[in-house]
Amino acid sequence: SSSSHTHPNHTVTSCIASERSALLGFKAGLSDPAYLLSSWKGDECCKWKGVHCSTRNSHVVKLDLQGHGCDLNSDAWTQVLGGNISSSLLGLRHLQYLDLSCNGFYGVQVPEFLGSLHKLRYIDLSSLSFIGRIPPQLGNLSNLQYLNLNSEYFNTTYSMDITWLSQLTSLVHLDLSGTNLTTIVHWLPVVNMLPSLKVLHLINCNLRTSSASLQLSNLTFLETLDLSANGFHTHIARNWFWDLTSLKYLYISSNGFYGQLPDEIGNMTSIVKLDLSSNNLFGMIPSNLKNICSLEEFFVHETNINGSITKFFQRLPSCSWNKLTYLSLASSNLTGRLPTKLEPLNNLIYLDISRNKLIGPMPLWIGELTKLTYLDLGYNSLDGFIHEGHLSGLESLEWLWLSDNSLTLTVNSTWVPPSSLTNIELRSCLLGPKFPPWLRWLTSLDNLDISNTSISDKLVFLDLAHNHFVGTLPTWIREKLPQLAFLRLRSNMFCGHIPEELTKLVRLQYLDLAYNNITGSIPKSIVNCKGMIATRDNYDDGGDASHRAFGFNDEWEHGPNELVTYTENFTVVTKGQERLYTGEVIYMVNLDLSCNNIIGDIPKDISALVKLKSLNLSWNIFSGKIPENIGALAQVESLDLSHNRLSGEIPASLSALTSLSRLNLSYNNLTGEVPSGDQLRTLEDPEYIYVGNPGLCGPPLSHKCPQPEPIPSTPKHHGDLNDVASFFIAMGSGYVMGIWVVFCTFLFKRKWTVYWYSVCDSLYDRVYVQVVLTWASWTREKD
Ligand SMILES: *[C@@H]1O[C@H](CO)[C@@H](O)[C@H](O)[C@H]1NC(C)=O
Ligand SMILES: *[C@@H]1O[C@H](CO)[C@@H](O)[C@H](O)[C@H]1NC(C)=O
Ligand SMILES: *[C@@H]1O[C@H](CO)[C@@H](O)[C@H](O)[C@H]1NC(C)=O
Ligand SMILES: *[C@@H]1O[C@H](CO)[C@@H](O)[C@H](O)[C@H]1NC(C)=O
Ligand SMILES: *[C@@H]1O[C@H](CO)[C@@H](O)[C@H](O)[C@H]1NC(C)=O
Ligand SMILES: *[C@@H]1O[C@H](CO)[C@@H](O)[C@H](O)[C@H]1NC(C)=O
Ligand SMILES: *[C@@H]1O[C@H](CO)[C@@H](O)[C@H](O)[C@H]1NC(C)=O
Ligand SMILES: *[C@@H]1O[C@H](CO)[C@@H](O)[C@H](O)[C@H]1NC(C)=O
Ligand SMILES: *[C@@H]1O[C@H](CO)[C@@H](O)[C@H](O)[C@H]1NC(C)=O
Ligand SMILES: *[C@@H]1O[C@H](CO)[C@@H](O)[C@H](O)[C@H]1NC(C)=O
Ligand SMILES: *[C@@H]1O[C@H](CO)[C@@H](O)[C@H](O)[C@H]1NC(C)=O
Ligand SMILES: *[C@@H]1O[C@H](CO)[C@@H](O)[C@H](O)[C@H]1NC(C)=O
């Protein structure tokens, strides 16, 4: 064809026109919201995504359109094809390989016509939520070597007659997981007709019959047998699969098998992965298990082993200890103490001995498992101390679950935990009385449960920024952490509204919720909160005009003053820049809600938060006007309202902000004249401050105002303190104003944070507050 001549490589195959039409017909039946098939245009169908042609005769031989629906990544499942599987595929008569797995063909049946594509060797239609009957026509595909119709998570397909399978004598890999085969009694003789079979997955197929033995077995090549989650309810010892002593992978969990763990296991001398869990089995593992030197993964959880853990480890084949990666012994009635010495389990990745009856201390060898990512010893009766030596070698640890033991964590204050940790549950262990400083070092926590750990410190400070927390903002904080002054949840994936409970925290001084997915509007109660802080000037100079205007109550006057002497250098994020501040933390006051999806007006009383030094509401969806009395925020140094939908004029009171050094109102819909004022004139980058508001005019902008109109009600050129005070008085004094003093982003270089904790520890020993921080249970409530 002419198109191939234009191409430098003359061996490039060109597309056969009828097959191109077949592909386009197939595409026409699909829905493709993510444009995965955008390359499917033009003549050269052999170059289309997922299409492979024979270099010999140009026929389409392979169609590989696996979707992303099986990825755990949350957006990935939208990267899928759906719709119908058109019979125009029949035009691809030379097709050998078809992979449509992990797409979204909801409610579609496995197409019967596939049985006519006689050259097919490979079919992967797994994870597709197909429904209905598996077509017996597939039995005509005598070349088929690989058939994967796994729908184990959907369980919406069925077959009432599988004799067609016995014709597929070339089959090497068969996966019918999730297919309802409940009516089929004699499934095993059918499978036994497949002498090439290496892999057989029949997970969750509603199979109920098994067979005691398999005489003259054809299944001599079988390596993988997965019969998990059926319902055999037979005695474990008399089962056909024990004859397949060359099996490498045997999974028979959740089948209602009963009886003692059989000696037959010991004859499976090639076994690599063995899952016997969640049946009704009992007894110690058999002594002939020592013959199994290839064992890598061993799952016997929910087995009533009812013996000592020491004996269990003795019977674990020592010749395979350096191969073991997974060991799952949860809920197995194991008793006694963990052995104090053990051959090294150098490659162990996963160790779960939770929910047994173990007593005594956690042995030091656990701390030497450098590859361990998952450790669960929860729900035992372990006691004693855990110190650095138990944990420091766990370089790869992601999950540490020790809940509901009587363990005492005595790591010293300088200890740094493995940075890989993402899940920690230490419920009811002894951690206190001080809040464990090492938690500061963890930056990717998904789950943290340190409830009932006898912490009687005051967290005052909670910094969980830059983690992966999801769900709505915690409402329990007020109840559980009533003394919280600093709350930093920046850069997580929180969604939903800002709960009113947060605004009721009596000491909240610092709130940073930036870079989440928070929606709704700012609760009005934000200005009623009693979040006041005794900054030095409250006491020393008798309060400024705004304090007097509202009159602090007694509670306030007798409020805590522990912070007053604290002085430290710290870095602050303002306008995206990290700045080092030298001075007292208590003067830093900040509210940062930037980069969320918050809607509605900026509450007009936000100006009550007179201690704010930095207010960042940028990159939200705020609309309406900038509150007239914004100028009452007399201490604001940085004000960022950019990238919202604010409209109307810039309030003249803005020029009263004498402390202002950074202002950003860009990318809104503000109109009218830019207020003049001494302070505003001193600001740098005047163009940048107002850019993206085409309706603004007047200096410093080059755009002249058409008709400067005087605004009688709000005279310009405010600037002195009396005017500021008048704003407050105008707001009335009917309620006790809570200055919501929010400490500025003294942001937390890790080094500094740790220092901060130790300072808190020494300062706050008068009042004790129970600390219960149960992120796990909170997220579960959400579900
Ligand atoms: C042409 O393509 C074939 C197959 O992709 C490749 O092996 C060969 O090196 C290419 N020849 C040239 C000249 O690029
Ligand atoms: C396939 O096999 C069935 C019987 O299993 C038969 O009825 C049918 O005609 C065969 N051919 C095709 C193209 O389906
Ligand atoms: C399996 O099929 C049987 C009858 O064919 C039906 O009674 C049963 O509910 C099905 N099971 C599932 C899990 O769909
Ligand atoms: C073994 O497989 C062959 C080919 O499918 C079949 O003819 C034979 O009956 C099978 N043997 C048994 C014991 O099932
Ligand atoms: C284990 O295999 C040997 C030899 O094949 C056999 O004699 C013995 O009966 C088998 N034991 C069990 C428990 O199946
Ligand atoms: C543990 O063993 C005891 C007998 O010692 C038995 O009563 C109990 O049911 C067993 N628990 C489990 C979970 O198997
Ligand atoms: C569990 O072990 C105890 C003591 O060894 C024994 O008395 C009891 O019968 C065992 N229970 C089972 C279910 O094996
Ligand atoms: C804390 O533990 C480390 C080892 O992790 C040790 O080097 C240091 O001396 C300990 N400090 C104190 C005060 O015990
Ligand atoms: C709290 O932990 C103690 C042991 O430290 C335990 O006895 C108690 O039952 C636990 N309380 C709760 C509610 O879990
Ligand atoms: C943000 O929240 C909205 C509504 O709750 C949701 O539809 C959206 O997917 C979320 N976005 C992200 C990135 O999580
Ligand atoms: C704080 O910064 C100043 C100026 O950089 C420096 O002189 C002082 O030593 C610092 N104080 C502390 C405690 O680091
Ligand atoms: C800007 O505000 C004016 C009213 O002041 C309104 O008519 C217009 O729709 C707004 N534009 C946008 C993009 O919101």
From TrEMBL:
Positions of the Leucine-rich repeat-containing N-terminal plant-type domain: 17-54
Membrane-traversing stretches: 724-748
One cellular component (GO) term of this entry: plasma membrane
Alphabetized UniProt keyword annotations: Cell membrane, Glycoprotein, Leucine-rich repeat, Membrane, Receptor, Repeat, Signal, Transmembrane, Transmembrane helix
Localization terms from the record: Cell membrane
Membrane-related topology note: Single-pass type I membrane protein
InterPro entries: Leu-rich_rpt, Leu-rich_rpt_typical-subtyp, LRR_dom_sf, LRR_N_plant-typ, RLP23-like
Keyword DNA damage set for record: no
Domain of life, per lineage: Eukaryota
Keyword Transmembrane helix: yes
SUPFAM superfamilies: L domain-like
Family membership: Belongs to the RLP family.
PANTHER family, sorted: HCRVF1 PROTEIN-LIKE (PTHR48063:SF72), LRR RECEPTOR-LIKE KINASE (PTHR48063)
Name under which the protein is recorded: Leucine-rich repeat-containing N-terminal plant-type domain-containing protein
